[in-house]
Structure formats: C-alpha cells, structure tokens
Amino acid sequence: MKFIDEYRQGDIAQKLAEEIAKMTDKPLKIMEVCGGHTHTIFKYGIEDLLPANITMIHGPGCPVCVLPIGRVDDAISIAVRPEVIFTTYGDAMRVPGSRTSLLDAKASGADIRMVYSPLDSLKIAKQNPEKQIVFLALGFETTSPSTALTILQAAKDDVKNFSIFCNHITIVPALKALLDSPDLQLDGFLGPGHVSTVIGTRVYEFVNTEYGKPLVVSGFEPLDILQSVYMIVKQIVENRVEIENQYGRVVSRSGNQKALEALFEVFELRDYFEWRGLGSIAHSGMRLNKKYAAFDAELKYNVPGHRIADPKACQCGEILKGVKKPWECKVFGTACTPETPIGSCMVSSEGACAAYYNFGRLSKIAQRSA
Amino acid sequence: MCLAIPGKIVEMVDMENRIVKVDVGGVRRNVNVGMLDENEIEIGNYVLIHVGFAMTKIDEKEAEETLRILNEIGQYEDEFDQFKTALE
Ligand code: SF4
C-alpha cells in the first residue's frame, strides 16, 4: 500500500478497499477496457490497495497498442512518398512495423509531422497546396467524431489535397470478441469513460443480457475506479447483472447525438479489422463511406495491405485477454522496453506492458526472479 | 489517448465553422465545438477538450476537479503540452 499517501482522499480510498474486501473473498477478475484506466491503476497502485482476491485485467482499450504491424507498414509506405506530408498523433510514432516505425522513417527523411488535432492537419493541407497531406486517423469513439467533423470541414472547404489513412476502431465488437473467446475468464468490466460520452451506456446492454456480466462505466480518478470496482463486486454478491454508470457527470445513456451523427454521416463499418494481439474482429473497424471516398488515402495510394503476424516472443494477445501478466513475458524489461518496444503494449504509456514497466517493474521483476 | 483536458470558452471566433477560443491554464487555442448543443456554447462555459474538439460541457467544479486529477496522475503535462502545440 505504498501509494496510499498519494491519494488526497486516502481515507475514502482505504474505506472503499475495506468495503470491497468485506463483501467477498471469492476470486474475481475485472477487466478495465480503457487504457486511461490502466494508467491510473498503475500510477496509484490500485492493485496493491485492492484485496488479493480481486485481479484487474488490462483490456484492449489503447488504440495505439492494437494497431497491427501491417497497418503500420502501410502508413509508412504512404509517409515516404515524396509528394506527401504525413501527419499523425505523437503516440503512433514509435509503434513498430515489420521493419521500421514512423519515427525511423522520419529520421531517414520522410516528411512526417506530429499534430495535436486532425484540424491542424487540414490546416497544413491548406497551407501547402502543392503537397498531399495524409492524416493517420486512429482511436476509438472518443477520437473518431473529431476525424469525422474534420472530413466534413474539408468537404465544405473543398480541400483536394487532404486525405486520411483510417484506422478507427469501435469498442463494442471488441468487447463481444473478448466475451466470445473461450480462454477468457472475467467476472465484470469497467467501461470506458470518454468513449461512453460519445456512444452512451445503452450500447453495452448486451454485456449483461446476453453474456451475464456486469459492467460499470467509470471515470478516471483513482476514487472513480475504486468506486466502480465496488459497484461491480456489489452486483456480483447481490446476484445482479446490470450496466451501471459511475461517470454520470459526463456520460448519459444515449451518448452525444451530434458526435454520433457525424460518425454515421462519414464512416461505414469494415467487414473485418485486424487488432494486434487479438486477430481479426468482424465490424470492428471504420472506413470512409462512398460519399467521402475522395478523402480516403487507402484508395488514393496503393498500400501493400499485407497481414503480418505479431512477433513470436510477444504475448500482448494473452495479456489483453487477461490470460497472462506482462511480467510473465520472457522479454519484458530486457529486450522489450518503451525505448525498444517489441510489442505494441509496450509503446503507449497506456499499454499494459509500458504501464507495468513504468510503475510496477521493479517489484514484479524482483518477484519473478525470487 | 482517450483523455481530455478542461478549458473555458473565452471568445467566439468563427461561428459558421464552429470555432471558439478556449483558455487552458492561461494558454489560449481555437477549438471546434461542432459536437456541442447550441445552448452549451457560451462564453464562460467549461468544456472537455480532446484533440482540438470540445466533447461535452462540464461544470466549473468538475473542470477544476479534472485538472487536479490530471495533474495528480501525471497526465496533465502530456495533455497540456500537446494542447500547446495546436496550430494557431
Ligand atoms: S513485454 Fe513486449 S514483447 Fe512481451 S508482451 Fe509486452 S509488448 Fe509484447
């Protein structure tokens, strides 16, 4: 409990943890779907605070971590074209492709620029009419409405030299795939906070009705997370399976209509999309629909489109399904570090491996060698 | 990647293109408010900002609380640094 002093409301945190411990000593596995939650859980040592029978499983909710190698290669193939200025969120720069990353490509001279917003990418397009500007669009429903609104703006302003390489993914099919996977044993879910601001909580109502698992949409503060875990455990001991909303301050049942309208206007679901570590998941990826095809970099440029298997040593897949913990991977912290990531869960600070590496590495490595 | 930073609407910049200026810790940048309802777009209102777009209106107390938390979990600097790199 070394992190307890860091809580400003340590007494409440302690109390919640005690209440959770009092309710049951049954072993329970709870998955936090969102990478933001993973970050908070490690930063605050929430796993140390929780009773030993509760295990947190770190889910697939880090979009950078699930971007497959083949798509990284495709992005690089566009980025190195001489007529292209390639723009991306900083998080994606280090993601390893089969041979190089975007960062390597930039070092070898490709014009790759980090941007804060897709609107900045659109601005660069307007300022450089002689160039083709491509934006690497990625993220869940927190981020995809921003891309959609940027496309609508580009269409309105009739910008011809702007396109996106679209890797947007959607959380519900991924949840379904996880729930369908035979080696998964989970007792409940912490639902993502900001994704749910957009999509609402109603869309999760199959998790309880069809799969019999409780889900609580949670905020990002340590106390939010503890309270959400408390709500899940309480459901379990009371034999309830419900979708509950701990983050009611910004999440509603029906979500943000304007954001959803923009998504439906601009995107359509792909039949399949590949997730690093999880494989191919039906209807889990988005692409521009016909009406906005002019902004689709995949149609503009001939990308190789190879499917490339994850590195053998990497166990991100097992980690994402909660079958293994990062420190059980043989190369964790030795060959694979945030500076030289082998798998993508080591790339983003929200990935389970990077989070362990940054916050829990020493104690875990000590445990492993003990 | 799904975190958002709170800011205060300080100026209507270009309502036709849904652009307002927000203030985050003294730094001012333009953001898009195309996801907000008409009545939420008012000077003095607090909003949660993600990649240059306001996702939802929040109340002032919530804004302060969120900033405090982001600060505590060490995410504020990252989010803030990225926010600062927004093009003028
Ligand atoms: S430590 Fe590296 S190689 Fe091992 S599972 Fe994590 S990301 Fe993959």
Characterize the structure shown.
The complex is a heterodimer of chains A (370) and B (88). Chain A has 370 residues and is an alpha/beta fold. Helix content of chain A is 39%, strand content 17%. Chain A contains 16 helices and 13 strands. Chain A has a 5-stranded parallel beta sheet. Chain A has a 4-stranded parallel beta sheet with strand order 4-3-5-6, sandwiched between helices. A two-stranded antiparallel sheet of chain A has the order 10-13. In chain A, β5, α8 and β6 form a beta-alpha-beta unit. In chain A, α1 (10-23) packs parallel to α12. The two termini of chain A are 20 Å apart. Chain B is of the alpha+beta class. Chain B has a single domain, classed as SH3 type barrels (Roll), CATH 2.30.30.140. Chain B has 2 helices and 5 strands. Chain B has helices at residues 60-72, 76-84; strands at 5-14, 19-24, 27-32, 46-50, 53-58. A 5-stranded antiparallel beta sheet of chain B has the order 3-2-1-4-5. Chain B starts with a strand and ends with a helix. Iron/sulfur cluster (SF4) is lined by residues 313-316, 319, 326, 329, 331-332, 336, 342-343, 345-346, 353 of chain A.
Residues in helices of chain B, as a percent range: 25-40%
**What's the SSE pattern of chain B?**
EEEEEHH
Secondary-structure arrangement, i.e. CATH architecture of one domain in chain A: 3-Layer(aba) Sandwich
Unique ligands: iron/sulfur cluster
C-alpha termini separation of chain A: 20 Å
> Which of globular, elongated, flat, extended, rod-shaped describes the shape of chain A?
globular
Overall residue-averaged pLDDT value of chain B: 85
Q: How many β-strands of chain A, per DSSP?
A: 13
Query: Would you tell me the overall average pLDDT of chain A?
Result: 89
What is the number of helices of chain B? 2
| Radius of gyration of chain B over all CA atoms, rounded | 12 Å
- CATH architecture classification name of chain B: Roll
* Beta-strand percent range of chain A: 15-25%
Largest interface: A-B, 52 and 31 residues
